[in-house]
Write a structure and sequence with these properties.
Layout lengths: L5 E2 L1 H9 L6 E5 L10 H7 L5 E3 L19 H10 L7 E5 L9 H10 L5 E4 L2 H7 L25 E2 L1 H10 L3 E4 L3 H5 L18 E2 L6 E2 L2 E2 L2 H10 L8 E4 L6 H10 L6 E3 L2 H8 L14
Parallel strand pairs: 1-5, 2-3, 2-4, 4-5, 6-12, 7-8, 7-11, 11-12
Antiparallel strand pairs: 9-10
Helix pairs in contact: 4-9
Length: 289
C-alpha cells in the first residue's frame, strides 16, 4: 500500500480518537546535533498522544565516516519492530521544528527506501498541532514489539559511484536542496568541516521553498518551483543536500506531484567533498569585505 505523503492534524487527531492503533503508529523524529538540545528529553515532556520517539542518531550506520547514512535493513527492522511497527502499520512521522517539518521527511524516505510505503508526514508538525489546540502528553506510550522485515528499494537510493557515473552518462537530473549560498560556495558554516560548493551539472532548489507558514505549499506552487528550475518531473531525478536530510523534502514534494521514484544521494555533499576529484567540485570565490 502506498499512503498519502502528507496527513493533516485534523486527520491524525481523528484517527487517534478512532483508536486505529496498532495499525497506526506515530513517531516523533525531532533531531538536534549532538551536544546541543536533548530531543528525547523534550519528547518525554511533550508529545502527541500515542507517539514513540525515533532517534535518528541511534538508527543510522554507526561506522560510517558521514553523519547520517542509512542503517542496514536488519538494524532498521529491529529498531522499528521494537517501536511496535510491522509491515502492516501505517506510520505517521513528525518533528517539532519551527519550520513545521525538518527531519520528518528524512524518516519518511527511510521507511520508503527500506521497503515500507505506508508512511506519511504530519503537515505542520508539532508546531501546528499545538497551534490548533490539539492535545499533547508526557505519558509513556506502551507498545508491543512487532516483526518488521526491511528490504532495500535501490531505485530510491544513489551512491557515490552512481553520482560519479552520472557526470558522464547524465542519466538522471541531480538537484541540490541546500540554500543558495552553500550550493554556490559563498556561505560556509562553521563547524561543518567542509567547504561549501556543488557537483558539476547539479541544479539548486532550496528545500525551504516548499514550505510556507509551517505547511507544505499547495501542489500547483510546488510544480511551479520545479518548472522555474527547468526540472522535468517526467525524467529520472535524484536529490542531495549536505547530509541527505533536507534532500528528502524534495523527494516528498515531487511525490506529492505524483512522482514516486525520486532518489536520494545518501552521502550527499559531505561524502562528495571528501571523496571526489578536485575537478568534480565547483567552488565560487567568496566576496571579501
Amino acid at each position: 500500500m502506498v499512503s498519502r505523503g502528507l496527513v493533516s492534524a485534523s486527520w491524525l487527531s481523528g484517527a487517534l480518537k478512532a483508536k486505529k492503533a496498532p495499525a497506526l503508529r506515530v513517531l516523533d523524529t525531532t533531531y538536534y546535533s549532538p551536544g546541543t538540545k536533548d530531543a528525547r528529553k523534550e519528547f518525554a515532556e511533550r508529545h502527541i498522544p500515542g507517539a514513540s520517539f525515533f532517534d535518528l542518531e541511534h538508527c543510522k550506520d554507526q561506522v560510517s565516516a558521514y553523519e547520517m547514512m542509512l542503517p542496514s535493513p536488519s538494524q532498521f527492522s529491529q529498531y522499528v519492530g521494537h517501536l511496535g511497527i510491522s509491515n502492516e502499520s501505517h506510520v505517521v512521522v513528525y518533528d517539532t521544528d519551527s519550520l513545521g517539518m525538518l527531519y520528518a521527511p528524512r524518516l519518511w524516505w527511510m521507511f520508503r527506501v527500506l521497503g515500507h510505503n505506508n508512511v506519511s508526514v504530519l503537515d505542520g508538525g508539532l508546531t501546528k498541532w499545538l497551534e490548533r489546540g490539539l492535545p499533547v502528553t508526557s505519558e509513556d506510550t506502551q507498545v508491543a514489539p512487532q516483526t518488521f522485515h526491511a528490504t532495500v528499494n535501490h531505485s530510491l537510493l544513489k551512491t557515490f559511484k552512481d553520482i560519479q557515473e552520472n557526470l558522464i552518462s547524465q542519466q538522471f537530473q541531480l538537484v541540490d536542496a541546500r540554500v543558495e549560498g552553500r550550493y554556490s560556495g559563498q556561505e560556509p558554516k562553521s563547524g561543518e568541516g567542509i567547504e561549501p560548493g556543488h557537483i558539476p551539472g547539479s541544479v539548486n532548489l532550496p528545500f525551504s521553498g516548499f514550505l510556507e507558514d509551517g505547511y507544505e505549499r499547495p501542489s500547483h506552487e510546488i510544480r511551479l518551483l520545479f518548472e522555474q528550475k527547468g526540472i522535468d518531473l517526467t525524467k529520472p531525478l535524484t536529490a542531495m543536500c549536505r547530509r541527505g536530510v533536507t534532500a528528502c523534502h524534495l523527494a516528498l514534494a515531487s511525490f506529492l506531484l505524483g512522482k514516486e521514484d525520486t532518489s536520494i544521494y545518501d552521502g550527499s555533499w559531505s561524502e562528495w567533498f571528501h571523496r571526489a576529484k578536485p575537478e568534480h567540485k565547483v567552488f565560487q570565490k567568496r566576496n571579501r569585505a
